[in-house]
Write the structure tokens for this entry.
Amino acid sequence: MLRDSRLRRYLPSAILIVITDKKQSNSINMIEKFRSTVSFDKFIQHGKSFKASDKKTYYISYKEFLEYFKNTNEITKHNLIIGINFAYGWMPTIFDFCNDDFDNVLKILNRAKQDIIPSKDELDTLKGLLNHSLVGTSKLLHFINPECFAIWDSKVYKYLTKNKANQNNISKSESYLAYLEFCKELTEKEEYNKIHSQVCNAVGYKMTKFRTAELIMFSTKNDDGNEE
């Protein structure tokens, strides 16, 4: 199968338009799915009920992870290796570099640091190097630029879809892009400002709105009383 980067050299423009439109359609469909599952009013109620976890390790390490990339002007291979490994300190799996496409990945990450959201194909490039994991990729992106990227994982996926996450559905880059757009939609509403401040106060320090939105989704319990 041809890589996306090679498709433009071999496929007619009409077919490329269909492929692009399909990717955009998938992302739009996911946003509609998120909206139908979690209304803004429902999300606000969950935000009002947010309680900080008793496990403080994540809260303590989180600020240091952000500080590391905040003080990094240009992300190098050295920074990437350190960053993805501390990101995996928040994950139950062992990390593995799955190819040697460091040059392209570093270009994408440095653009992400400048508020440029990767395309679906660029996200696929990132996770192709980073253990084939969109979850790990999202954590790295968030630590690099917490204003523009939110952490994506199985609990967030279930909160937004009411479906149990598996390797197939949680790994779709277009779903992550839809998630970022949905976070933006939720957090730009004026009513969210009070909830954002409340979550920051509960945790004990200032965070971005994308981080507080993700914490609400991650921490909200389902109808059975279990965390999503």
